[in-house]
Write a structure and sequence with these properties.
Structural class: mainly alpha
CATH superfamily of the largest domain: MFS general substrate transporter like domains
CATH class of the largest domain: Mainly Alpha
Organism: Pseudomonas izuensis
Largest sheet: none
Membrane topology: Multi-pass membrane protein
InterPro entries: EmrB-like, MFS, MFS_dom, MFS_trans_sf, Sugar_transporter_CS
Keywords: Cell membrane, Membrane, Transmembrane, Transmembrane helix, Transport
Number of strands: 0
Pfam families: MFS_1
CATH architecture of the largest domain: Up-down Bundle
Number of domains: 3
Number of helices: 18
Order of helices and strands: HHHHHHHHHHHHHHHHHH
Radius of gyration: 23 Å
Helix content: over 70%
Shape: globular
Strand content: under 5%
Length: 492
């Protein structure tokens, strides 16, 4: 970027607005189909286990390109790579709207995710270079808030559009936004490229990525393929094990790689990253469970289903901004503890959901969970990086966000597995009580179908509650780590 970008207030402001919009857009498109899963499944003849891929495909794809975004910009040019990512994102949007099979739709989501993994970090890079150093931290908070706002508003936007039109137009809203961002970048962003080709640890990156993607495919495909009775699952398990083995050997035997061993020596960073991983595990998994529960089991329309994610989002964004604005004299460890406790309590409230409930319990539990997540994220951002050397912070930030992304994608996959298993088990347990001696023998076929439908809904609802228990346990497991955090130092 040219040096005069920071002095040209109008151009710099337009660039910041454009990348802020891109940050919101790529974040909102992740949960955008959440409130309309039933419509998508019916239109594309998509099975229940395939519905989980709508989220995991986007997340896993973005986790592939996220670590190499800065290298791509340095190697091929920031402007060129950013515009290519926008074009790829628009292609994914168009392909999603014209999909006629589950495979086509999942492929479109993968394309969107690959582009989103590049847009996120490069948007931050473009924005920060248009600002004076003393203003960068404040705008970084704004960018993170835009990510949270996207996650919060995506389902509500998708639900409202689908209720009044159809599910396919939910992706149209991002096409003019992408075109506007593309135009602003083309007109105002000067090309920036490294003087010489940068180096990158592709062996470490590839081995780690192969391991995580193989694990993701194993979890996503395991139920459908009957687990280790399938050669495919064995191949994915072996690829995951081999990838992890090569990655850890590489890290322990090489001095230069994309994962800096020095980060492991900082206790606050390691513990904060583990807690952040658990927050990622809960963040999207709750949404992936709540919206189908409201839409498919309780019969709420898509616009209401989407709107009930807004209290959670409002709590999340509000708590994040409030906690980031707290004076330095307040110990952030206390707010990490309060945030984690709120998330646990909110998930405990979710265990009390009932098929007879109205919407307030969902709104209250969602708002409390969102407030806890937002508070924890803001406080952890301070705790994690305050004890790190400034030279390590850019690399640490990338790894920190990458593990949150993997936490989300693995969380969605795991709750989907247990949901289907528990639904089948509960269906068998409930159905076993329907015997000829309880009147079933004298019922007509439509009546028996109605009973089976009722049993299926009851089993699915119980299975959803069981998954909220898994999310609560995940936060309980990491909660003791808060006690071992050191008091943050003043940020440099």
């Amino acid at each position: 970027m040219n040096a005069n970008t920071t002095t040209d207030t109008g151009a710099a402001g337009s660039l910041r607005f454009a990348v802020l919009l891109a940050t919101w857009m790529q974040s909102a498109n992740l949960p955008l189909p959440n409130a309309v899963l039933r419509l998508i499944q019916g239109s594309l003849s998509m099975t229940d286990d395939q519905a989980g891929w709508i989220f995991t495909a986007y997340l896993a794809a973005s986790a592939i390109t996220l670590p190499i975004a800065q290298w791509l910009a340095a190697r091929f040019g920031l402007k060129r790579v950013y515009q290519a990512a926008l074009a790829l994102f628009m292609l994914g949007l168009v392909l999603a709207t014209v999909s006629t099979t589950p495979l086509e739709f999942i492929g479109a989501r993968i394309i969107q995710g690959l582009a989103a993994g590049v847009l996120g970090p490069l948007s931050m890079g473009i924005a920060l270079e248009t600002l004076a150093p003393e203003k960068r931290m404040k705008f970084g908070v704004t960018l993170t808030a835009a990510v949270l706002l996207g996650i919060a508003t995506g389902p509500a936007i998708g639900g409202w559009i689908a209720e009044h039109f159809d599910w396919r137009p939910i992706f149209y809203i991002s096409l003019p936004l992408s075109a506007y961002i593309f135009m602003v970048i083309a007109l105002l962003l000067a090309e920036k490229k490294a003087d010489k080709a940068p180096t990158y640890d592709f062996f470490g990156f590839t081995s780690f990525t192969v391991a995580m993607i193989s694990l993701q495919m194993l979890l996503d495909r395991g139920e459908r393929m009957n687990w280790f009775d399938s050669p495919e699952i064995w191949i994915e398990a072996l690829a995951c094990g081999l990838g992890l083995y090569l990655f850890f050997v590489h890290v322990m035997t090489r001095n230069v790689h994309f994962f800096n061993k020095s980060l492991l020596r900082d206790r606050n960073y390691v513990l904060s990253t583990l807690i952040f991983f658990a927050i990622g595990f809960v963040l999207l998994s709750t949404m992936a469970l709540t919206s189908p529960m409201l839409d498919e089991i309780l019969g709420y329309p898509p616009d209401t289903t989407g709107a009930l994610t807004l209290p959670r989002g409002a709590g999340m964004v509000g708590a994040f901004l409030l906690t980031m604005r707290l004076p330095e004299r307040f110990d952030r460890r206390l707010f990490v503890a309060i945030g984690v406790a709120l998330v646990i309590y909110a998930n405990w409230l979710m265990l009390g959901y009932s098929p007879l409930m109205d919407w307030p319990p969902v709104a209250i539990a969602g708002a409390l969970q969102g407030f806890g997540i937002g508070m924890s994220m803001a406080a952890l951002a301070k705790v994690a990086f305050s004890t790190l050397a400034p030279a390590l912070r850019p690399e640490a930030t990338g790894l920190y966000n990458l593990l949150r992304a993997y936490g989300s994608t693995l969380g969605v996959a795991i709750v989907q597995i247990y949901f289907f298993n528990n639904t089948q088990a509960m269906h068998q347990a409930l159905g076993a009580n329907i015997t000829p001696y309880r009147g079933a023998a004298s019922m007509s076929l439509p009546a028996l179908e109605g009973i089976n439908h009722l049993v299926t809904h009851q089993a699915a609802f119980i299975a959803v509650i069981d998954q909220f228990k898994i999310l609560m346990v995940a936060m309980l497991v990491v909660s003791p780590l808060v006690l071992f955090l050191r008091k943050p130092a003043a940020t440099n």
